[in-house]
Amino acid sequence: MPDSSSPAGTRRALTLREHCDLRSRRMKAEREDYDPVYYEIATYAAPARSRFNHNNQVPSRKKRARAHTLYDGHAIGAFNILSGGMTSGLSSPSRPWFRFALPDPDLMKFWPVKVWLADVERIIYDFLGKTNFYTAVKSGYSELGLFGTEAMFMDEHWNSGIVFSTMTAGEYYLACGDDQRVDTLCHHVPMTVRQIVQRFVADRFDSHTMHWDRVSRTVKQLWDNSNDDTTVQVMRLVEPNPAYDSFRGDADGKRFRSLWWECGNDNKTAILSKSGYEEQAFVGARWQTIGNDTYGSGPGWNALPDMRVLQVQAKRLGELTDLLAKPPVVAPVGTRVKLTPGAVTYAAQVDMAGVKPLFQVDGQAIDRVEQTMARLYGKIDTAAFADIFMAITQMDGVQPRNQEEIFARNEEKLTQLGPVVERVSTEKLKVILDRVFYVLERRGAFPEPPEELDGIKLSIEFISTLAQAQRMIGLSQVERVVGFVGNLAESFPEAADNLDPDALVHEYADRAGSPPKIMRDPAAVDELRQQRQASEAEAKAAAMMPAVKQAADGAQLLSETPINTGEPNLLDTLMAGTA
């Protein structure tokens, strides 16, 4: 099975297995510089994560960072707040966080299109709620905040639709395409012998056929000896398909190819499975990157120096407390002093006088260490953005503490989250929604779209709390401009002519994230204004009617009043005199 990605005449054609081994080694070498940092972050802030050890051995289900040097768990709580805040702020299960849009705003107002978009959004929200998406996405935000990079796979499932599998640092490798976005994922999948046989060896269509040529002799022997639960190292590589042909119906007809192989198999032509995906079936998101870096850095990297010092100070605080409670003593030779509570030490009277503390711990030393730890707590909270997501709890002052006040008090900090929100939306949430949309579309879950949508590509707008918060930051500028013009118009009324009230209202509503349905259509606004103008004209005319009627009655009276018998009336005389 030669690898078609190798052009003939330029380099030796590799088998698929050789290609997998080569790519995995190179991707692993690129990540090795990050492993010591990952391990240290996991030790201080996430001891249950990061499945590798400090010797950088192959990850397994038991290789996790151990917490032998963990004396204070404040960082664990701070990063839990970060993951919870990112979850509720970007993809909350209790409120809408995305909607579909079209390039043509007028087409979105067309009723059948509007109804279809609403139905599709509802179906996707319902689908995500029935899967493990919200559990997995929170775990992913934790990985992103701690290590600066996260990876998650989205496998189709016959019953659940999609199973979201979050990976932890140390068990995957990434690579980027020419657009500097992650397009390749290679990860370790420790599997038992039983799982390997069920998934790769047993034929799906013939229960009596077994493909033992796909696995090593070791796996075959383990199976024959009933060692079904022995763990074997398996790897999967998912990458853009270099042999993509849209007219083919097999794996080469998919945009991404998925290759599984057994690490310990000496047969360099054997692979466990080859399949493909129409769209990217995994997420590789970064908090922030520098230049062409494949892996990102984030709050965990920024908080690492303070987490190191915090463990030293916490250990020192424990030692000082122990020395204060149980100071070392000097006792006569032969006297065994018991310092445990309630213990009795038997000694002669002359010996008792000789028992005394070796030294006394200054109580202020404990206070100084606690003050140092409090400063470290604050620095870790700031690095983990816990102070933003706990803004209500930590806010000074009295009620009411509304959302606008929180955003106003933290506007400067929220601007720091702006690039992260945009990157997460692009590298994570959009990839997930694309995958979910096409899976549901292939399953026929959506209603038939209106003819007006033929050939039109949908776009995604993110309307989560944090996404709206970023947009609301610009509201203060709008308010300042309006306030300035309003004050200026008191002395110079013509200054108000510079503002377009309709444009201001729509810009403010859009930045504030108000539902589009509460805003009237511009045509309806024009019609309403015309009706108002007509009503005002009628009211003005009605107000003038008494004066007009009075003038008409006076004219009639003058016309009917003669000056003398046989002479013209008074009105004619007045009109003649005027002429």
Number of strands: 14
Give the helix tally. Answer: 20
Beta-strand content? 5-15%
Summing up helix and strand content along with how strands pair, one would put the structural category as alpha+beta
Mean pLDDT: 82
Query: In which order are the strands of the major sheet placed?
Result: 4-5-8-9-10
Any idea what the radius of gyration is? 38 Å
What's the shape?
flat
State the distance separating the first and last CA atoms.
115 Å
Q: Major beta sheet, specifics?
A: 5 strands, antiparallel
Helix content, binned percent: 40-55%
Low-confidence stretches: 53-65
Question: Would you kindly provide a written description of the structure presented here, covering whatever features stand out?
Answer:
- With 579 residues, the chain is of the alpha+beta class.
- The protein contains 20 helices and 14 strands.
- It has helices at residues 16-31, 35-45, 74-90, 105-108, 111-130, 133-147, 193-201, 217-224, 299-325, 349-352, 363-383, 386-389, 391-394, 403-409, 411-442, 465-472, 475-491, 501-512, 522-559, 570-578, and strands at 98-101, 149-157, 161-167, 172-176, 182-188, 191-192, 231-232, 234-240, 256-262, 273-277, 282-286, 329-330, 356-357, 459-462.
- It has a five-stranded antiparallel sheet, covered by helices on one side. Strands 3-2-11 form a three-stranded antiparallel sheet.
- A hairpin with a 5-residue loop joins β4 and β5 (182-188).
- The protein is flat and about 150 Å long.
